[in-house]
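Researcher: Please translate sequence to structure tokens.
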Amino acid sequence: MITRKVLSLFTILFFFTFSLLNAQAVSQSITVSSGTFSKVLSFGLDPSATDGIDLSLGEAVLPPLPPGGIFDARFKLPDSEQSWKDYRQGTAASFISKDYEIHFAPDNGLGIKIEWDLPAGYKGTLKDKMNGLIISTTVKGKGEISLTPEQVEQVNKLILSINFLLGTLSAPTLLSPADNAVNIPLTQTFSWNAVTNATDYLLVLAKDIGFTDSIGVYYPATTSYEVTNLDNDIDIYWKVIARNRDAANPLSLASAIRKFHTVDVPPPVPVLQTPIDNAVGLSRKIIFTWEASAGANFYKLQIAEDENFNNIFWEDSTITDDVAAGVNQIVDGFAFSADYWYRVRARNGAGNSPYTIVRKFSIVSINWLLDISVANNREANKDTLRIGAADSATDLIDPIFGELSLPPLPPTAVFDVRLKLSTTESSAIDFRPTADNITYTILLQCGDAGYPLTFSWDKTKLPEGMFTLKDPFGGIYLNVDMKSENSATLTEDAVTGVIIEYTKKISIDLALQNSWNIISVPITADDMTSSVLFPSAISPAWKYDNGYTQEATAKIGLGYWLRMPSAQSVTVSGLPTALTTVNVKSGWNLIGVYDKEESVANITTTPADLLNSRFFGYGNGYFEPASLVPGKGYWIRAKQDGQLNFHYTINKGTDFSAYAQSSIAANSGKLIIKDALNNSSTLYLISESADLTQFDLPPLPPTGIFDARFSSGRMAESVSSIQGIDINSANYPVSISVSGTSIKIFDENGKEWILNSGSNFSITNPETNKIRIQSTEIPLEYNLMQNYPNPFNPTTTIQFTIPEKSVVNLSIYNILGEEVNRVINKELDAGSHQYEWDAAGLPSGIYIYKLSTDKFTSNKKMLLIK
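Model: Translation complete:
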């Protein structure tokens, strides 16, 4: 009986022990296949396993490999036996590495594929016996590798190296800082003992023992780690967990928890974030941000209007850390177009940190702004609108300038005023792009209180320029110069909107030459007095209106003679005009263009065909301009009263000299008369038949201004007769150069000089201000020219040409055919001749002058008016 009980107890103990050992065993498998054949090979750990055949674990000895071409796969055990299973000594709690040698043979001519599907805790490699020279791969989780037939010819066995990571990692032992340590620096190195089989660690810091108020989790690969920027003067709890990511149980139990207390020191300097240094174009409302400083309880933000912080714009020393990513503070009310500087410092119970570096920022720039108050009869019904201009503004909503889109209008009984920005947008603020002309539109809804509406503003806040507040009907009900008034009242209830028109003051530089200039004032200055506009002038301004008169106050559109002591630039500032026309009177006019250059070729007139002269400018002598330039004055002659129309289109390619001489033949003779100060006039001798009135010059300039012209008042005359030249206000000596012809010069004393083309002649006697010239070229035909002037009183000049030496008779007859005077009756040389006839003593009327030779007779009429 006792024996049976002992046997039963032994049997129970045996099976319990076997079950316990079997529970500690682990088994995994890989599959080797080739073509349609495959074999599962099992490997693992068992407490009872040996390096040989373990029949109890299912290992069985296999016969030798079959002949080539027949698939086979097996393990080779350490004792050289071969089996489909290979278990090594170990348990399910082991951290151990084992090598398994796999032999295989493919199906005829095919390759080999090896597959696996391993749970966590298994990691290894599969390599050839040449240390992976041909085959090498990681074995982990689910995977496979295929060997080509060529590779199989080189490799018929592989080493499966498996790391069994099946146990539990030990909990780390903490070293430093010690438990309950005090005055620990805010930068601290934590250390602990190494844990076998751990690949890295989790260092966990918190402000409470339950680790709910976390400071941070760090993942060092070694047994020490430095943490910076710890909060000062607080308790900190810490623990460490060992980790192996590939293990079946990747985390160890936590170490024991330790506590320490940090030192109480002032916080470090905060790190600024926004605005960045030298930021520009910022809104008047700014969010300031900076990184939180470890141990800080409060922050002080200081904003100044100067970099030395002498003028504080805004400051607050009670800012707290309300944002996890950092600290922020919103500040509003910065001035447009202004520069500011800011800095921050942190504070706790131990003191203040130093200030941060100083940063500068700039608020978006504007050119000007104006606030306008609009109110109806009820004192409570009052709103303020703001208008302005800035380079970066648009015609739509610009939030950076405080513009916000308003909702639709309220019911008509409710008072409302707003600025219209577009067809769909309205706002209480309207900044527009900088421009010379801007129009603002104010929409009005008076409400049940009714009209009148009162507009108020501060005119001293307005920039240079013209501001007009008016109704959209052309100013019938409201038209106020806002620079002159501070308020306006609208009583007409039909007006539901008003406009503000702004015109910018502009500046134009006028280039003036030494001595005399013809100038104009192209814009309306605040003070149009000529002595204010041109303070260094050494003459009054002379205007022309059928004669010269002094003009104390200049007007736009008119030209003036003005003398300067030296060449200089004068800047005129004022308002541009919208005018595009200049009025002219019958006869000669001195005019000026406005603030834009205008091509002469593009000027039109009202009525058409109004002009009967060229345009003339002045620059040490008259010239014909290709375009009219702002600030310069010009002569023009009109047949009757009318207008010049400017279209402001400049022909940039116009050739100046070609335009100036467009109606003078290229083969015409040219005389350049120049005085000692380089004042000059260019005169022409033309041989073709032409209307000489087209070459009429403007009236003589005022006394003291150089001028040289034919006695007829023209810049061009016929080569076929003797011509007089008048020289006015010259500085002697005066030189005359000739090109394209040869002439004979006569002075008032009868002296003669011959000038061939390319030669020069000098007049040194200041008393000589009149000369006569005659072409030395022989005329080709007889010709009797029209007398000039005609009509006349009492003298006139008669010119004629004869191509050969002839006896010439020039006689004067009255309307009855009676000879009243024989001017000449003698033999003359071939050439051009002229004679002056004095009709003093004869009555007014028509007279006939007759030229006769043995080969030519001609007569013409002339009119004597007394």
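Researcher: Any highlights?
Model: The CA atoms of residues 499 and 577 lie 19 Å apart.
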